[in-house]
Amino acid sequence: MNNINKTQSEKVEVMALFNYSRVPCQPLYFRRRGEDEVEITETISTRIKFAGGKAKHIFDCIVGKSQCQLEFDSASLAWTLIQS
Prior knowledge:
The protein is built from no helices and seven strands. It is mainly β. The chain is globular and about 35 Å long.
């Protein structure tokens, strides 16, 4: 079985600044269940995806030397970490 394009996602806790300067939201750290905080080195891009009357705020981030994606669901107020 080919697992090269396998994507993993999990709920995480995120520390973010909201309505800071011209950026409406800036994720700073995230924490997986039972682990230490992980600092977000850089936010590469942000975008909003609308579906079914709710919005998902998507952040492409650099953590150390790895790239990941954080999604904030405006309806459930939950953060999801997506890694490929």
